[in-house]
Amino acid sequence: MVACTLGGFAQGVDDISPMAIYNVGLVGCDTCGVAVLNHFLSTGEARCVAVWSPDEAWSRAVKEEVAPLQSKVPEVCADYADMLDRRDLDIVLIVLPEAQGLPLFLQACDYDKSIYIELPIHLSAEEIAPLVEASHTTSGAVQVGCHTTDPGETAGLVENMLSYLNGQTDSLSSPIDKISVSDK
């Protein structure tokens, strides 16, 4: 189901990089979510510690694919709140179709985690406003990708976020309060 996607990038992530290893939780275990997770894993600066998806079969498949790539086997969380409650979770990676991830983003902001979210390109100002407001309440960094972003751009966004968290760069390249809105 996801084997071809995960096998393409990651070669194992434990102790590759001299940088910090960030613990990532994937929300949305379909092909798009796995592709973005691959970008995190391929940096050597992140490992997947938890997965949650509305479809538990996808979560289990991702767990099985990620487990051989790192020493820590990701937990399949039965509930999204259980994932957010994890003390070892540094980054919540939200990649769900359409606007399904928006309420999950709002919930993640309450937990002061750093968040990478893939947003649809057709959100209105009214849909973006509560996301921007919530992002100002969290102490974590918020980086935004787009469902239609090409893989090279996604890799750049992921690398920028990790560089920001490591203190190597002063700003995020795509913060949520700088994204454009549609004229719905």
UniProtKB/TrEMBL annotation:
Oxidoreductase recorded as keyword: yes
Entry keyword Hydrolase: no
Matches recorded under InterPro entries: Gfo/Idh/MocA-like_OxRdtase_N (IPR000683), Gfo/Idh/MocA_oxidrdct_glycsds (IPR050463), NAD(P)-bd_dom_sf (IPR036291)
GO molecular function: nucleotide binding; oxidoreductase activity
Domain Gfo/Idh/MocA-like oxidoreductase N-terminal: 23-145
Matching Pfam families: GFO_IDH_MocA
Keywords per UniProt: Oxidoreductase
Record protein name field: Gfo/Idh/MocA-like oxidoreductase N-terminal domain-containing protein
